[in-house]
Amino acid sequence: MDQSPAPMPESARELPDGSDLGTALGTDFFDLDELLTERERELRDGVRRWCDEEVVARAAEFWEAARFPRELLGAYAATRVAGASIEGYGCAGVSPLAEGMMCAELARGDGSVATLNAVHSGLAMTSVQVLGSEEQRERWLPAMARLELLGAVALTEPTHGSDVVSLETTARRDGDGWVLDGAKRWIGNGSVCDLAVVWARDDDGNVGGFVVEAPQEADGWDAQVIEGKVGNRGVWQAHIRLDGVRVPAGNRLAGARTFEDTNRVLARSRQTVAWEALGHAVAAYEGALTYARRREQFGRPLAHNQLVQDDLARMVTLITSMQLMCTRMSQLEEQGRCTLEHAAMAKLHTTTAAREVVATARDLLGGNGILLDHHVGRHFADLEAVYTYEGSRTVQSLLVGRAVTGVSAFT
């Protein structure tokens, strides 16, 4: 009986029944691929090839060592997924749908690389693009697209996660600049970034985004990597202390004045996370299907059993529902009609559905399901982070609940 690790989804290896593994794992039941232009499809496929050929081969190494995948940044930049839907500034300028599919491919490859992208592109580049002045966009976005500047966004605080609106970090005006004081926690890329957007309250109580350049060299910036994680181990989150960090006046994002401005960024970044969850689910499903067709028990492959087929059918049906919701969400974004509540519902559904898919896949692999060699266990663990960050399931549920009832139940 073959106990070898599950082969990569794009391999042309033949299964015992003579079928081609590379064509057996398709999950696009509703032909959503047809909605992309030829160029968008080429970019999406480029991300897929890079993940299959380079990222997955090293993902277990980075995961087990809890090591930041710095050597992958150059190739990541070459995929054009960073800021993919931004027009100009050296970005690809594709549709939000194509960008979403590219982000899903990153998560299908590795959750840590996908999270790195979600922070750098979905949060940091989006903050500059949505809230920055034209001068600020020209100053930072091209270098961020080339990964000459790696971005981070410092919003969450040690005592303010879901109630981040209670922001305590302060920005005090001092001469021709600002002075930042406070603490931030769970800041992706925070210990390795070249540029960080720090959210703080100014002297008037207004919320602003303040860009700290070369933060690791800044006086008063102390970023410590959070250790002991059981998921997304290949990307670093930091606990940051800000003690008199100085920022030039021109580094306050021009369009960041209230927490509603922050929500404009979160509405975009949660779309990225919804696509991420889909990518994890697809990876787990592909691993489970490959295993079911290769692993023999009681004289035949697992895929011949009714209960196994029932599990696989349920998994691919959930994946299809996630694809359809993410697709419509991205179409609304392209039309300028995607709201915070749309993004909340998408994140609520995809992370919940993906959690069921990866758990079913891990169970189907039996004991092998917890081995890094088979990839499914890594996605199982990493999805737990996706399930929580950018707002937990309950936070998303309350946003949708407020939309349908007109009543806020947050407090």
TrEMBL record:
Among Gene3D superfamilies, the record links this protein to: Acyl-CoA dehydrogenase/oxidase, N-terminal domain, Butyryl-CoA Dehydrogenase, subunit A, domain 2, Butyryl-CoA Dehydrogenase, subunit A, domain 3
Q: Where is this region: Disordered?
A: 1-21
Pfam families reported in the protein's UniProt record: Acyl-CoA_dh_1, Acyl-CoA_dh_M, Acyl-CoA_dh_N
Q: Which residues form the Acyl-CoA oxidase/dehydrogenase middle domain?
A: 152-245
Origin organism of this chain? Answer: Ornithinimicrobium kibberense
Q: What residue stretches are annotated with the Acyl-CoA dehydrogenase/oxidase N-terminal domain?
A: 37-147
Q: Which family does the entry's similarity section mention?
A: Belongs to the acyl-CoA dehydrogenase family.
In this protein, which residues make up the domain named Acyl-CoA dehydrogenase/oxidase C-terminal?
A: 263-404
Q: Does the keyword Flavoprotein apply?
A: yes
Key word Oxidoreductase present? yes
* Cross-referenced SUPFAM superfamilies: Acyl-CoA dehydrogenase C-terminal domain-like, Acyl-CoA dehydrogenase NM domain-like
Question: Which prosthetic group or cofactor does it need?
Answer: FAD
Q: What is this protein called?
A: Acyl-CoA dehydrogenase family protein
Q: According to the UniProt entry, where is the signal peptide?
A: none
Superkingdom of the organism of origin: Bacteria
Q: Which UniProt keywords apply?
A: FAD, Flavoprotein, Oxidoreductase
